TrEMBL record:
It comes from the Bacteria. Residues 3-32 form the Protein YjdM N-terminal domain. This is Protein PhnA. The lineage of its organism: Bacteria, Pseudomonadati, Pseudomonadota, Betaproteobacteria, Burkholderiales. PANTHER family: PROTEIN YJDM, PROTEIN YJDM-RELATED. Pfam families: YjdM, Zn_Ribbon_YjdM. Gene3D superfamilies: 2.20.25.10, SH3 Domains. It comes from Variovorax boronicumulans. Coiled coil: none annotated. Belongs to the YjdM family. Residues 48-115 form the Protein YjdM C-terminal domain. InterPro entries: YjdM, YjdM_C, YjdM_N.
């Protein structure tokens, strides 16, 4: 009889150990044996900083520090353009925002400064 806890996502009983992690074979969910400590560590690992090292958060206002060409268009986002109420996302372009006159865009944090 297994003494391992069930999967927190699908509640499957067939979990197994893989090094320091537990793995569910049914939904492929992996989690640490320390449980809640791993969840908070994963949240803390997602720190996104602007070009000068300020930590960015959802809802911040940012300023573009370099002229950025809009791919597939002749438009250019000029230096000093502000974007309000940003949303942080995972990926190469880690900021999702709306820019007046252009619309929804994804930006890299290295080209912005917190306003």
């Amino acid at each position: 009889m297994s003494t391992l806890p069930p999967c927190p996502q699908c509640h499957s009983e067939f979990t197994y150990e893989d090094g320091l992690n537990l793995v569910c074979p049914e939904c492929a969910h992996e989690w640490s044996t320390s449980g809640a400590a791993a969840e908070s560590a994963a949240d803390e690992g997602r720190i996104i900083k602007d070009s000068v090292g300020n930590v960015l958060n959802d809802g911040d206002t940012i300023t573009v520090i370099k002229d950025l060409k809009v791919k597939g268009s002749s438009l250019v986002v000029k230096v000093g353009t502000k974007a309000k109420n940003i949303r942080l996302i995972d990926g190469d372009h880690d900021i999702d925002c709306k820019i007046d006159g252009i619309g929804a865009m994804k930006l890299k944090s290295e080209f912005v400064r917190k306003a």
